[in-house]
Amino acid sequence: MRRRSGNPFVPTGVGSAMIDETAREIREMQTHSSSVVAIKASRALAELLDREFATVDEYLRSLEHNGTALRRANPSHASLQNAVWEIVGDVVAAEPETIAAAKGLTDERIEAVVSRIKAGTRRAARNGADRLADGATLLTHDYSSTVLSALERAAADGKRIEVLVTEARPRYIGRKTARALADVDGVEPTLITDAAAGHHLEGCDRVVVGMTCIVGRTLYNRVGTFPIAAAADRLGVPVTVLGAESKLVADGFVFENEFRAGSEVIAEPAEGFAVSNPAYDATPVALLEEVITDDGVRTFD
């Protein structure tokens, strides 16, 4: 490592341990909610503020390099892509004249982006809670921090709600949702297998799920969302999607699905057959009754 005036600085293109670790967690889906992922990725860039750089250009190159690493960790998360791109893009476009100015602007943009994501999630949850009826039986899939927050707020308003929670196999992410809801007074969760969703839907008033993103007229969310929405449509059960407005993308974003290791599906070697393990699926918005965001309620014709 080169040195200047006795202070270490990072050569162009060298990654950050914290940022590399955050990217690894995102790739391995240790952090599941897309809003949480976006916040975690944004916060990770703050590690660069405590490091020494020789020039402004070197700092900006490192910011771009590490921003790209975080964005590549999960190309499917529109909120992550937009958050990191905004932070890096704003700092680079400002053409700061000093390292201190560049770091100060980075810190400012990180806080602004994180605050906006949190505020958007809170407002979406509040709007969602207002739409949930007292005494309703709901079905939810996977883990969504916005859906969880909406249920917590509805319960705090005095509503009593039964929630059927799918396991979200093969990683069983729904178990995290069920455990969280078990601690909410007024909410009665029941964990079910993904395959049992159709069996239980006839007794449900509504399906409520989060979203990874909506691109054009397609909802992308954890795999298993599409068959639930299709079955709900067949049975006349309305489907509500909750999430921040920033997750709705009109154009300029190409969703990239992720096919995860077959070992998540079957522990023993797959001999004589292949294993397909997509992380997400695509649901036509025509199957949705409404999408509730921080900006209000959206419907699709």
Q: Could you provide a short overview of the structure?
A:
With 301 residues, the chain is of the alpha/beta class. The protein contains nine helices and 13 strands.
Walk me through the structure:
There is one protein chain. With 301 residues, this protein is α/β, with parallel strands linked by helices. The protein folds into two domains: 119 residues, translation initiation factor eif-2b, domain 1 (Four Helix Bundle (Hemerythrin (Met), subunit A), Up-down Bundle); 167 residues, 3-Layer(aba) Sandwich (Rossmann fold). The chain has a seven-stranded mixed β-sheet, with helices on both faces. A four-stranded mixed β-sheet has the order 10-7-8-11, covered by helices on one side. A hairpin with a 2-residue loop joins β1 and β2. α1 runs parallel beside α3 and α5 crosses α6. The longest helix has 33 residues. The chain is globular, with a radius of gyration of 21 Å.
Over all CA atoms, what is the radius of gyration? Answer: 21 Å
Based on the coordinates given, report the CATH architecture of the largest domain: 3-Layer(aba) Sandwich
Number of helices: 9
Low-confidence stretches: 1-14
What's the β-strand tally? 13
Stated plainly, the CATH topology of the largest domain is called Rossmann fold
Going by CATH, what is the homologous superfamily of the largest domain? Translation initiation factor eif-2b, domain 2
Q: Tell me roughly what share of residues is in helical segments.
A: 40-55%
Order of adjacent strands in the largest pleated sheet: 5-4-3-6-9-12-13
Instruction: Name the average pLDDT.
Output: 90
Shape: globular
- Taken together, the total number of domains comes to 2
- Percentage of β-strand residues: 15-25%
Q: Termini, distance in Å?
A: 59 Å
Q: Which CATH C-level class of the largest domain is it? A: Alpha Beta
Secondary-structure class? alpha/beta
Q: Which series of helices and strands comes N to C?
A: EEHHHHHEHEHEHEEEHEEEEE
The biggest beta sheet is recorded as:
7 strands, mixed
